[in-house]
Structures are given as structure tokens and as C-alpha cells.
Design a protein that fits this description.
The structure is a single chain. The protein has 126 residues and is an all-beta fold. It has no helices and 11 strands. The strands form 2 sheets. Strands 2, 4, 5, 6, 9, 10 and 11 form a 7-stranded mixed sheet that branches. Strands 1-3-8-7 form a 4-stranded antiparallel sheet, with no helix packed on it. A hairpin with a 6-residue loop joins strand 4 and strand 5. The protein starts with a strand and ends with a strand. 36% of the residues are buried. The mean pLDDT is 95.
Length: 126
């Protein structure tokens, strides 16, 4: 059974860093594009970043560009989101999602993804 599990969230001070992990079980990530999304209380879910199945294409929301880095380690069946220079407005539940595709470019649109993790809370506060 296809399953995604996020981890690495927590409470961090502004300016701090966290690394989120998205581990897959029941399938291999080799042919899946992965997206990271977040949802803050009272707000719609928004795309944060995505990475193509090959890892050759990545995209970032303007709000995180230059601060977040997405990467994948297919040998470990895991995708990471390194988050630096965190701001209070980054506070949200972060979700990873997967879609099987061989497209060269990744897509950062929630309906495009068919499988979702349960989310991990990230809180940025002093």
C-alpha cells in the first residue's frame, strides 16, 4: 500500500532551520514527482516546492525561493525539504504528495497529486 510519511517538523525560532523528510513505503519513488505543500490556519493549501521524478527539475513558491531547497534520495526512498531563514509566516502544516509521471518538469498544483502524507507541523515563533 502506497504511503507517504512526513517528519522533521517542530518549533523553531525565526531565522532558524528545519529539514523535513518525506519517506515513501509500499512503492519506490523513482518514477514519482514529489510536491511539498503547506496549509496555515484559515488559509488555503499552497504549493511550496516540487521536484521531478529525475530530480532534474525543481520549482519553488516565490515566498520561499532562496530559503528552501528540495532534494531527493531515491536510494533512501525519501525526499527532503531544507528550510532555512524561517519566518513566522512559514508556520503551517506541511504535506508531501506524490504523482507517478515521467514528465521532465514538475508541477506545483495540488490536484495533480494523487497520494498525500498526513502532514507535519512547523511552527516558527520566538
Amino acid at each position: 500500500q502506497l504511503q507517504l510519511v512526513e517528519s522533521g517538523g517542530g518549533l523553531v525560532q525565526p531565522g532558524g532551520s528545519l529539514r523535513l523528510s518525506c519517506a515513501a513505503s509500499g512503492f519506490t519513488l523513482d518514477y514519482y514527482a514529489i510536491g511539498w505543500f503547506r496549509q496555515a490556519p484559515g488559509k488555503v493549501r499552497e504549493g511550496v516546492s516540487c521536484i521531478s521524478s529525475s530530480g532534474g527539475s525543481t520549482k519553488y513558491a516565490d515566498s520561499v525561493k532562496g530559503r528552501f531547497t528540495i532534494s531527493r534520495d531515491n536510494a533512501k526512498n525519501t525526499v527532503y525539504l531544507q528550510m532555512n531563514s524561517l519566518k513566522p509566516e512559514d508556520t503551517a502544516i506541511y504535506y508531501c504528495a506524490a504523482v507517478t509521471t515521467v514528465q521532465a518538469m514538475c508541477v506545483m498544483t495540488a490536484p495533480y497529486f494523487g497520494s498525500w502524507g498526513q502532514g507535519t507541523q512547523v511552527t516558527v515563533s520566538s
